[in-house]
Design goal:
The complex is a heterodimer of chains A (246) and B (180).
Chain A lengths: L10 E3 L18 H32 L9 H44 L6 H67 L1 H30 L8 H11 L7
Chain B lengths: L14 E7 L3 H13 L5 E7 L15 E7 L3 H11 L11 E6 L11 H10 L4 E3 L5 H18 L8 H9 L4 H5 L1
Parallel strand pairs in B: 1-2, 1-3, 3-4, 4-5
The chains are: A mainly alpha (246), B alpha/beta (180).
GO cellular component, one term (chain B): cytoplasm
Subunit structure (chain B): Component of the CENPA-NAC complex, at least composed of CENPA, CENPC, CENPH, CENPM, CENPN, CENPT and CENPU. The CENPA-NAC complex interacts with the CENPA-CAD complex, composed of CENPI, CENPK, CENPL, CENPO, CENPP, CENPQ, CENPR and CENPS.
Subcellular location (chain B): Chromosome, Centromere, Kinetochore; Cytoplasm; Nucleus
Chain lengths: 246, 180
C-alpha cells in the first residue's frame, strides 16, 4: 500500500476583525484599529478562558478511574444512558437555581426602586395592577373551561352508559329470537309430530275410501238424489276433497 | 500516531480546525469552500481526508471537530467511515464528532438504508445530520451549521461547551431509534 490515504491541503480564511500579527490589508483604517484591537483582545480572552475550562474539566474527568472489566453491550448502554441522564439532571438543576437567583435579584431591585419613587403614580404600579387583573381573568376563564370539560365528561359518560344498555338489550333480543327459531326447528323435527302427521294421512285416506264407497253405492242404486235436499247435501259433501283441508 | 486525540495539542490562537472525512472528494471540497466563505470571527481551517489514519508526517493543528460524511448511494463510503472510526479516540465522541449523511433526496439511488446510519450515530452517541450536499442551498445552510458547531467545539463561544451542545442536540434524536 504505497499510497496512504492522502490528506488534502488545508485552506484558511483570514480574520475579518483585523489580523493580529499579519500585515494589514487596508492601509487607511488606522482610526478603527484601536477599537478592533480591544474587541479582539476581549474575544481572545473569553476564548482562552473557555478553552482553559475545557482542559481543566478533562483533567478532572480523567482522574476518575474507568472500570477496565469487559462489560456486555447492554450494560454499557445502560451505564451510558444513566450518565446522560445525570448530565441532564445536573443541567436542569443548574437552570432552576439560576432562575431562582434571577428572580431574587429582580425582586430585590424592584423593592429598591419602589422605595425610591412615589408608588402611586409610577408606571410600574399600573403595570402590576394590569397584571393582577389579567391574572384574575385567566383564573376565571380557566375555571370556566374546567367546568365545561367536566360537563362534557359527564355527557360522554352518560352516552357510553346508554350505548352499553342498548347493546345488552339488543343482545337479549337476539338470543330470544335465536331461541325461538331453535324451538320451532325442534318442534318441526320431533317424532311425535311425525307420527301424528302419519296418522292424519292414513285417516284421510281411509275417509276418502269410505267417501268413494258411499258415492258408488248411491250411484249404483240409481236413486234420484237431486230431488231431496238433505240427500243432495250428503252427496255434495261426499265430493269434498279431504286432502285440501290441511 | 495512529489514533486521533482531541486535546493532545495546544489550541491555536483564534483558530478552529475541522476535519471532514469521506470518500466523496468533490462534495467535500464544495462543502469546505462554502464553509470558508462563511462570515466567522475566528480563523477557520478545513482539512479533508478520504479516510483515517492520517499520515503523521504532516504537521497539523489541533482538530476541534470531525465530521464523517457518508453517502447513502454507496456502501463503500459507509464501510470507509466505519474503518476510520477505529482510529479515533473515544474522547472525541463527547461532542467533537458528528455524522453527515448525504444523498437522501433520491430514494431510488440509495443503497444504504437510512436506519443503518441512524443506528451508527446512536451507537457513537453523536449527532447525525441529513443534508443533500449536491444542492446549493442545503449545502450553504449545512456549512453555516458546521461553522457554528466548530466555533463551539473549539471553545470560541463562552458559556457553551461541546458536551453541552451534544446534550442539547440529543433530545430530538434519541426518540428515533426507539420508534423504529
Amino acid at each position: 500500500m504505497e499510497m496512504q490515504p492522502g490528506e488534502h491541503a488545508a485552506t484558511e480564511s483570514p480574520d475579518s476583525g483585523g489580523g493580529e500579527g499579519r500585515p494589514p490589508q487596508v492601509a487607511g483604517a488606522q482610526e478603527a484599529r484601536p477599537e478592533d484591537r480591544l474587541t479582539l483582545l476581549l474575544r481572545l480572552r473569553a476564548q482562552t478562558k473557555q478553552q482553559l475550562l475545557e482542559y481543566k474539566s478533562m483533567l478532572d474527568a480523567s482522574e476518575e478511574k474507568t472500570p477496565e472489566q469487559i462489560m456486555q453491550d447492554k450494560q454499557i448502554e445502560a451505564k451510558i444512558e444513566d450518565l446522560e441522564n445525570e448530565i441532564e439532571e445536573v443541567k436542569t438543576a443548574f437552570e432552576i437555581k439560576r432562575l431562582a437567583l434571577h428572580r431574587m435579584q429582580l425582586s430585590a431591585a424592584l423593592k429598591k426602586n419602589l422605595e425610591k419613587i412615589n408608588p402611586q403614580t409610577s408606571v410600574l404600579m399600573d403595570n402590576m395592577k394590569h397584571i393582577l387583573k389579567l391574572n384574575k381573568l385567566i383564573m376565571k376563564s380557566q375555571q370556566e373551561s374546567w367546568d365545561l370539560e367536566e360537563k362534557l365528561l359527564d355527557v360522554r359518560k352518560k352516552r357510553l352508559q346508554l350505548k352499553q344498555a342498548s347493546e345488552s338489550k339488543l343482545l337479549e333480543i337476539q338470543t330470544e329470537k335465536n331461541k325461538q327459531k331453535d324451538d320451532l326447528a325442534i318442534m318441526e323435527n320431533s317424532d311425535k309430530i311425525k307420527t301424528v302427521q302419519q296418522n292424519l294421512q292414513t285417516e284421510i285416506q281411509v275417509t276418502t275410501v269410505i267417501q268413494h264407497v258411499f258415492q258408488n253405492l248411491i250411484l249404483g242404486s240409481k236413486a234420484n238424489w237431486a230431488e231431496d235436499s238433505a240427500f243432495k247435501e250428503i252427496v255434495l259433501q261426499l265430493e269434498k276433497n279431504l286432502t285440501m283441508i290441511k | 500516531m495512529s489514533v486521533l486525540r482531541p486535546l493532545d495539542k495546544q489550541p491555536g490562537l483564534n483558530t478552529a480546525t475541522i476535519l471532514l472525512v469521506g470518500t466523496e472528494d468533490a462534495l467535500l471540497q464544495q462543502l469546505a469552500d462554502s464553509m470558508l466563505k462563511e462570515d466567522c470571527a475566528s480563523e477557520l481551517r478545513v482539512h479533508l481526508a478520504r479516510s483515517l489514519p492520517l499520515p503523521s508526517s504532516v504537521d497539523r493543528p489541533r482538530i476541534d471537530l470531525i465530521v464523517f460524511v457518508v453517502n447513502l448511494h454507496s456502501k463503500y463510503s459507509l464501510r470507509n467511515v466505519e474503518e476510520s472510526l477505529r482510529h479515533v479516540d473515544a474522547t472525541f465522541f463527547l461532542g467533537k464528532a458528528a455524522f453527515l449523511a448525504t444523498g437522501a433526496g433520491r430514494e431510488s439511488h440509495c443503497s444504504v438504508h437510512r436506519n443503518t446510519v441512524v443506528k451508527l450515530a446512536h451507537t457513537y452517541r453523536s449527532p447525525l445530520f441529513f443534508c443533500d450536499l449536491e444542492m446549493e442551498g442545503f449545502q450553504a445552510t449545512m456549512a453555516q451549521r458546521l461553522v457554528r458547531m466548530l466555533q463551539i467545539c473549539a471553545g470560541h463561544v463562552p458559556g457553551v461547551s461541546a458536551l453541552n451542545l451534544l446534550s442539547l442536540l440529543r433530545s430530538s434524536e434519541t426518540l428515533a431509534p426507539e420508534d423504529l
